[in-house]
Amino acid sequence: MDAQAEWKLPWTGGCRCGAVRFEVVLAPLLASVCHCFGCQRMSASAFSTTLTIPQAGFRLSQGTVVTGGVHGAAVHHHHCDACKSWVFTTLEPEMGFVNLRATMLDEASWFEPYAEMQLAERLPWVATPARRSFERFPKMEEYAGLIAEFAEHGKRP
What we know:
By secondary structure, the protein is of the alpha+beta class. It has one domain: glutathione-dependent formaldehyde- activating enzyme (gfa). Helices cover 14% and strands 32% of the residues. It is built from 3 helices and 11 strands, in the order H-E-E-E-H-E-E-E-E-E-E-E-E-H.
C-alpha cells in the first residue's frame, strides 16, 4: 500500500475562524507534543501538538498568516491574521519541514503523539501515551531514528 493511501491523504484544515485554510498531501515525519513554557503559553494549554510535515507536502490554500510569538528568533510561529490561531511553525534556516499544530486539522481525533519533548518543563499532572520522551529536544542525530520508528509504529488516521 502506498503512503498516501495508508495515511488517507490529503488532509485539510484551518484556523478557528476559517480565514486560513491549508492542505497536507504528504505523510507526516513525526507526531509529537512539546511541553516547553513557550508552547504552554502560545497554546494556552499544557503542551502544543505537532505534526512534522515535509515542506513540499504542506500548502496554504486560503488566507494570510502573520508571525507571532517570539519575534527575531530562528523559530517562526505562523498565526491567522484574523483570529490569531497558531497554525504552524517554520524554522530558519529552512530544514525541509513545517510543524503543523495537529488540532488545526479538520479531523484530528486520530492524532496521538509518538514523542514528547521538553519534559523538564512539563506540568506535573500531564501524562501522554507517547512512546518516546525527551527531557529537552532530541539531538539532531537522533531524529533520523525517531522518524524511522514513527514511520513504522506511528498511529494513522
